[in-house]
Design goal:
Blueprint (H helix, E strand, L loop, with lengths): L6 H17 L2 H10 L4 H9 L18 H14 L1 H20 L2 H12 L5 E4 L15 E5 L2 E12 L6 E7 L12 E7 L5 E5 L10 E12 L3 E2 L5 H6 L2 H29 L1 E2 L2 E2 L4 H29 L5 H26 L9 H8 L10 H11 L7
Parallel strand pairs: 1-4
Antiparallel strand pairs: 2-3, 3-7, 4-5, 5-8, 6-7, 9-10
Bound molecules: flavin-adenine dinucleotide (FAD).
The site of flavin-adenine dinucleotide (FAD) has 24 residues, from strand 1, strand 3 and helix 12.
Amino acid sequence: MNFDTIEEHAMLRESVRAFFDQELPERRIREMDRARRIPRTLWKRFAELGWMGLSVPEEFGGSGADVSTAAVFCEELARRFPSLATDWLLVSMTARILRESGTRAQQAEYLPRLAQGDFLMGFGMSEPGGGTDVLALKTRADLEGDAWVVRGQKLYTSFADDADAILVLCRTEAAEGAKRARGLSLVLTPRNQPGVEVRRLELMGMRAACTCEVFLDGARAPADAVVGERGRGWYALLATLDEERILCAAMYVGITAAALEQALQYARDRQAFGRPIGAFQAVQHPLAETATELEQIRLITAKAAWLQSSGRDCATEAAMAKLAATEAALRATDRCMRVLGGYGLVEESPMERLLRDTRLGPFSPISNEMVKNFVGERLGLAKSY
Ligand SMILES: Cc1cc2nc3c(=O)[nH]c(=O)nc-3n(C[C@H](O)[C@H](O)[C@H](O)COP(=O)(O)OP(=O)(O)OC[C@H]3O[C@@H](n4cnc5c(N)ncnc54)[C@H](O)[C@@H]3O)c2cc1C
């Protein structure tokens, strides 16, 4: 085993930290959180820095980074601005779907624009009647003449309002008997058209990720807009799940690290009874527990990312990392907020935002109950759902 820091990762961490210090200070992050929007100019700036194309292959203008590198990036983004990490994770996932399942023409058309920050894609899977049980979805697309016509409703589609297109998981053919996963396709549906109406949701956390309801009422997409094999869209998605879980875990590693840093700083600075509060054991212990859990989740996430980057099976480790990191981040923000006392509730302290943002982790992109169901199966137990 080798735990040496990888030079490339250390440089990436440094440049993300420098970017936040110089270009995106806490004051601006708070403004975006209140506005519930990440401006397009920020994605363009990310493109200039080479970060939109991190998961895009070099031949399409990206840097073709592996999952370990993407996880380091995601962790650093979440350390300062979890909503931004949430949306970037989608940028990375949609790039992966196009890279692995798109036709050569789709890759040539969209991947370079994605890397340049000129094309943003939302991803519409969840629906009012199909969240955890996503295969219960009702949205469908029918080929009418030279276009797909999409009808249905999506729920919780992140940055749908700002996207140029939404990758919609929908039924294009009848299910094969009880096999609901068959007959679904991914249809890349342009956002700005009369058949698409988007309504922003007023969420408690991850506000700037701009999560929306999407109404598809006769939305049109070109006949060649199916990404991956027609009727096999679900299987194209399955191939991306491990990476999604690893990047999600990395986000919550970042949030945990940020909560710990702030609480440590406060414990050193804040005086009570003539001493820094960090001198009290009752303050030290929760910080020691958080530091220990941070180390655990960082290691399991790095291991899952390493397995994935070296082309090995990592489904169990990726699921475990997602479970462990999201639950640890909940405990970390709760413990660390207590250390900050009243200041933890003041908006100026990033802690209240971290605590709100971290509430998403236990159920998205997959609920931790479902992760445990999956890990149970991997342990050789019966499928429970
Ligand atoms: C901020 C935000 C951003 C999101 N972004 C996107 C996005 O961009 N695209 C997208 O498609 N979706 C997105 N989602 C949706 C997210 O993936 C879903 O919230 C998630 O899949 C859970 O679905 P649900 O909320 O409908 O919960 P439900 O399905 O209603 O589940 C409720 C509870 O029941 C439990 N449960 C259900 N079935 C079982 C079972 N068999 N065993 C044990 N427990 C079970 C769940 O674990 C959960 O605790 C986003 C959500 C949020 C809040």
